[in-house]
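hi support,

uploading two proteins for the ticket. first:
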Amino acid sequence: TLFRSETAGEKSEDEGTETAADAEDKGEAATDQDENSEKRKLQAGKKTQDRQKKRQRDRMVERIQYVCSLCKFRTYYDDEMKSHLESKFHSDHFNFVGTKLPKQTADFLAEYVANKTKKTEERRKSVEDINAAIQQIYKDQDLTQDLGMEHFVKKVEAAHCTACDFFIPMQYGILQKHLKSVEHNQNRKAMMEQSKKSSLVVAKSILNNKMISKKLEMYLKGENPFTDELDKDDAAEGTAECEPVENQTEVTEESKVEGMETDCGTGEDQIETEANEESTADDEKPLEGDDGDEGEAHAEG
């Protein structure tokens, strides 16, 4: 009986020890779970902040960036947009589109681009410091700024030749050598033809949009669809500048086009983006030179 009692006592002590060990393990597991949960919350919070920051940056880009959709030209600077609209590249594209569309329709497109540029100029006036805004956009897009020096990675400037899919160091001699090469001149001529065809795809896509087609109808009747009154109506249709998209209860077809679902007055960029995506397939076809030989494209990471 004494032996049994001692054995029972030992067993009870072992169970107590195991119970304490289990409790300690459970406590550690709970602590780990709490830490992991906290980490997940922090990560989720950071992702939310990053999304909000990106949304704000994208809205600012849409507010202040000049766009010529037919030429796929974008810039933040007044003088660069002015130079583009006066350039041979721009006129060649509109002349090509003019040979494929009725004259009045082609004239409407030219007025449309001019009016869109004017509206961008007006929106830019509401930005207190336009240069600071531009610099902030570039800074936010620089993915190297968060890298430590131990990685030995830094941002550098380079020229990208789209026709040859080639990155060129920003050195005068190297750049000139590339521009004078036979391969580049074959590729750029072929790319120019593809770019013109692409502009026609974009133009048709813009004209097929419901709201813009209404403006075209007005234009063909001799009315001015780009009056200040209409522009004010457009601005009233979309007020994402003051009200976040997630707070809007309804986004109409009109607000997507002439108002703003996301970008303070440039909602028409959405349909132009879709049109540009449609034309990308043509741009990615192999380039051919004048003599029929296929131009080889190079990429240098």
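and the second one:
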Amino acid sequence: MMLEKETSMSTMLFSAIFYGLCSGSMNFINKYLMTSLSFPFPSVMILFQLIVLAVSLKLFKNLGFINLVPYDKKNATTLAVQSILYSANTAMALIALNGMNVPMYNALRRCSPLASMILAFIVFTKKPTKLIFTSIIIITFGAIIAAHGDLSFDLKAYAYGSISVLLMGLNLTMLQYNGTERFYSTNDLLYINALNCIPIMGFICFLQADEIMKVSVFDDTRFIPTLILVVLSGCLLNYSMFLCTTVNSALTTTCVGVIKSVATTIIGMFAFGGVIPTVSFVIGQSLNFIGGILYAYSKYVQQKSKTLPS
């Protein structure tokens, strides 16, 4: 049995910042393609991203730059649950966003750290420290307060949003489990997951084929360069998310997502408008940010204590 490797604090920090930057920039690139160029088909983007990821990783392996486990029945089956959760999380996130207003969606998605913390306790029997627990509660309350003025009870929307949060937590927790307990590398997880998910996303695109062919954006000279940028950025985002989750934890990935969400919301508010900075919005965003910083500090203290001589 392989021994678990110790990860340096610099590696953990780099993976978290890398994921935050990739995730934040991806929001604006996606928004440009989906709204400015009127191409609201994320399934197409995800399918191309998965294909490029699988081909690129296989090419890097053949050139001797990386090692990869073979794509065989054993590995495909072992990571089948991971791939199903990845696809379901992606699909439900799109359905949820389409079925509710953005503030409601963002509020529920920022409850993901709470779901990840609970799942980490169930799956890994990992009890959070008092600082980590406090930071997650602050983030959750901040999410609720930030969207309080915009929330209106809609059972269907809440159901979609809640399932999306649960699936995201399950997806990241399973990813962490496959990395830390089954000892798959980040590249292995990306490669097997991409090949497993290509048929699923291809089927979704097939169902949307008639709608896709009706759009007029194909004549726009900006479309192909933007689509290429989205696909390549999406590949980096997937790699950074898998890396952050396997190097750190599912909980860290969701907390980085919260801090990123606060930053992109503020930038988007000034760049694109559409958000009125109410008192509840400002308080909620501030709590989200404070909770995220407190979580980062608690992880620093936790990691530092491991390096101290006993």
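thanks. also noticed: The radius of gyration is 20 Å.
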